[in-house]
Amino acid sequence: xxxxxxxxxxxxxxxxxxxxxxxxxxxxxxxxxxxxxxxxxxxxxxxxxxxxxxxxxxxxxxxxxxxxxxxxxxxxxxxxxxxxxxxxxxxxxxxxxxxxxxxxxxxxxxxxxxxxxxxxxxxxxxxxxxxxxxxxxxxxxxxxxxxxxxxxxxxxxxxxxxxxxxxxxxxxxxxxxxxxxxxxxxxxxxxxxxxxxxxxxxxxxxxxxxxxxxxxxxxxxxxxxxxxxxxxxxxxxxxxxxxxxxxxx
Length: 249
Fold this sequence. Notes:
Elements: H1 2-36, H2 46-61, E1 65-71, E2 74-79, E3 87-94, E4 97-102, H3 104-108, H4 110-125, E5 128-134, H5 149-155, E6 158-164, H6 171-184, E7 191-196, H7 199-204, H8 210-216, E8 221-226, E9 239-242
Parallel strand pairs: 6-7
Antiparallel strand pairs: 1-2, 2-3, 3-4, 5-6, 7-8, 8-9
Helix pairs in contact: 4-6
């Protein structure tokens, strides 16, 4: 009898442990589902933030996103259709609720903005290449897929990079003409850069090589200036950087 009683007690203990394990696993699963569905709960792990950011972005823009990683108070994600776009989704928590803010509109307006700027500066540089890159700052929450291009260029955060093979004779004069155009059209780019290439390098240049070109100084000259978005007084000091002395030789 004593042996049977001990066996019964052991079975009850094992059953209790199994029930606790099942409960914990179920709770973790349920919590994950709630986060993915955007239910406001306290975020505990990096996966929580990534799952919630993916859901919020999908709900806002109507397309699939994949989370990459969390850095400080931001989740980096990319649309499944454009894995090379690294969209920033900032988050903030208050009272147990977490809200998300993103800069995806900067990518959605990228192509149209580049075409618009190209037509404005073509009389100065002739055939050139224009690329805009959103800064890693979230935009106004009212921005969405339907935000018009002029609203974005006036209130967005982006850098404008222009590449040309024009002879570098009037670098600063041409650059100031471009600055005047940006001011006249209220294009509030955070930073404006113009880089001078050989014709050969210009023809084969693609946007993904930009960081490499800048880091290795594979150009004749690069001229740049920052726009004062706080005071809105225009562009500040113009800086001209000479590239590798062996470039183009």
